[in-house]
RNA sequence: GGUGGGGUGGCAGAGUGGUCGAAUGCGGCGGUCUUGAAAACCGUUGAGUGUUAAAGCUCCUAGGGUUCGAAUCCCUACCCCACCGCCA
């Protein structure tokens, strides 16, 4: 959530910034609420002060053996108006909360103008899409060809948008996750962490999925209101909820391999074939907690860590910066990495790296103690996929396919595959 | 699943319904002493909101309730600990 002070003091600037997202801030409504809130709050605090003072004097009178009956009589009306004032204030405050929680993060400088993903701007290009001298297949046919991808069984077991992997493909999938984790822990300085795949509402609130995006989530039928995680970002970032860390311990960097669960409500008909868009997929996540002045730089290095995986796998990709209209609700700036998919003849998202600044940490009270001032300050959070494992598997199958339908194994993965150099096509 | 005991400041741990944002100890910070350090002694030390600064207000797991007044009493939820049972 945004800093309430910013709304109070620089409302027009905020509105102008948000308009680049296509978000219209309801200034009138805000000003009405804020004005009313101030009046009611002042009055309410006055009444609280008054009633505390009365209660104390009653206590004193009683202690010294005086008759307290007249004092009690005086206090009668006060009690009534205090409780009225308190409920008026809390009603206003919750209205204000709803309003503020519905406002997306401010965009960082340098985020390009634009309405949707078509307006995202390419920043860089790496590698060169391979020229095939035979007809390319997509990952669905390739996976079936090596006998390792079985969507029919997944439909039988569960339904659409799930998958079953067996044999060499299952192993390749596992190898990818291991390879990514090892790279991030051993070469990029991340701390590996294993977390629950089920989270409570507070956690989803902290990272910004709730209250606004509930329909994207799988909710468990349990009175505790548990949800399946849509990304490791949720449990990992919430590690710091209600925590004040020492400045000397920063930055804190976690990497985490989890399954991710998304309802994909509203994406009917998109990417229905294959495993590009699934209800359940694996992802290696990178999460960083940094000091505010470090987060700009950290976004670049974090994105670089995700890029390193693509480079080691020798997969062509491009890096784009999302335009204002496409940046996620909680993010102030996002780079997407898009991998080349020969069957689609285009680049497809495989990683999304974002700087959330203090948007999440303000919600979850994740702070560090400034060693100079001794005061707690909000951390900045960043995260990025490093990478989406399922989509990486798709990219490997398609980019490493051979004419006979077999799949070459990238050399960095071979140690994880027991030295296997290719997945053979079944005849 | 059953029974009992708990959730208080960075930690430990007091707190007869009234002057408690909360004793005390440890830890942290500052100082005295010392060539330096330790020890000892003195002082200081929660978070948020608000303000030029203050005052004020909120917060003793969370949400309700009783009361002029709740950390303290009642209800509910969550979590933790112990023992018993069950499962592995």
What value does the Rg take, in angstroms? 27 Å
Q: Whole-number average pLDDT?
A: 92
CATH architecture of the largest domain: 2-Layer Sandwich
* Fraction of helical residues: 25-40%
SSE string: HHHHEHHHEEHEHEEEHEEEHEEEHEE
Topology-level CATH name of the largest domain = BirA Bifunctional Protein, domain 2
CATH superfamily of the largest domain: Bira Bifunctional Protein, Domain 2
Number of helices: 12
Any low-confidence stretches, pLDDT <50, length ≥5? none
Q: Main sheet: which strands, in order across?
A: 1-8-9-10-13-7-6-2
The first-to-last residue Cα distance is 57 Å
Give the total of domains. Answer: 2
- For the record, what CATH class of the largest domain applies? Alpha Beta
The portion of residues forming beta strands comes to 15-25%
Any key phrases for this structure?
single chain, 427 residues, alpha+beta, Helix Hairpins, BirA Bifunctional Protein, domain 2, 2 domains, eight-stranded mixed sheet, elongated, RNA-binding
Protein described:
With 427 residues, the chain is α+β, with helices and mostly antiparallel strands. It folds into two domains: 26-101, Orthogonal Bundle (Helix Hairpins); 117-423, BirA Bifunctional Protein, domain 2. The chain is built from twelve helices and 15 strands. It has helices at residues 4-9, 11-19, 27-63, 69-101, 139-145, 151-157, 167-186, 201-207, 233-237, 295-312, 359-364, 389-399, and strands at 121-126, 191-192, 198-199, 227-228, 243-246, 252-261, 280-290, 317-321, 333-341, 346-357, 366-369, 376-378, 380-388, 407-408, 422-423. The strands form four sheets. Strands 1-8-9-10-13-7-6-2 form an eight-stranded mixed β-sheet.
């Amino acid at each position: 959530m945004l800093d309430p002070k910013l709304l109070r003091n620089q409302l027009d600037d905020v509105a102008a910034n948000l308009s680049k997202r296509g978000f219209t801030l309801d200034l009138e409504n805000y000003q009405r609420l804020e004005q009313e809130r101030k009046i009611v709050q002042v009055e309410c605090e006055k009444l609280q002060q008054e009633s505390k003072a009365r209660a104390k004097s009653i206590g004193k009178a009683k202690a010294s053996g005086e008759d307290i009956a007249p004092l009690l009589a005086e206090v009668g009306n006060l009690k009534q108006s205090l409780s009225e004032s308190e409920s008026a204030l809390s009603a206003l405050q919750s209205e204000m909360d709803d309003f503020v929680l519905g406002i997306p993060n401010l965009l960082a400088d340098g985020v390009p103008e634009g309405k949707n993903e078509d307006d995202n701007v390419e920043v860089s290009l790496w590698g060169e899409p391979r020229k095939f001298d035979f007809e390319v297949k997509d990952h669905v046919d390739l996976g079936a060809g090596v006998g390792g991808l079985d969507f029919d069984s997944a439909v039988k077991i569960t339904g659409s948008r799930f998958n079953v992997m067996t044999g060499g493909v299952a192993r390749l999938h596992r190898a990818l996750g291991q390879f990514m984790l090892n790279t991030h822990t051993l070469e990029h300085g991340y701390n590996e962490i294993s977390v629950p795949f089920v989270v409570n509402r507070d956690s989803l609130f902290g990272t910004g999925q709730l209250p606004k995006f509930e329909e994207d989530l799988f909710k468990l039928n349990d009175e505790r209101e548990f949800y399946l995680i849509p990304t490791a970002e949720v449990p990992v970032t919430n590690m710091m909820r209600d925590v004040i860390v020492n400045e000397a311990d920063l930055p804190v960097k976690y990497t985490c391999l989890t399954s991710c669960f998304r309802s994909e409500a509203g994406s009917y008909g998109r990417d229905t074939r294959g495993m590009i868009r699934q209800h359940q997929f694996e992802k290696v996540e990178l999460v960083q907690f940094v000091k505010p002045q470090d987060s700009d730089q950290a976004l670049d290095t974090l994105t670089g860590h995700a890029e390193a995986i693509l480079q080691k796998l020798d997969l062509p990709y491009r890096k784009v910066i999302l335009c204002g209209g496409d940046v996620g609700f909680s993010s102030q700036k996002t780079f997407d990495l898009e991998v080349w998919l020969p069957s689609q003849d285009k680049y497809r998202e495989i990683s999304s790296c974002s700087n959330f600044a203090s948007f999440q940490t303000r919600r979850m009270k994740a702070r560090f103690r400034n060693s100079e001032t001794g005061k707690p300050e909000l951390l900045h959070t960043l995260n990025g996929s490093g990478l989406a494992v399922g989509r990486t598997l798709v990219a490997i199958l398609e980019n490493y396919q051979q004419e006979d339908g077999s799949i070459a194994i990238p050399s960095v993965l071979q140690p994880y595959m027991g030295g296997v150099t290719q997945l053979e096509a079944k005849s």
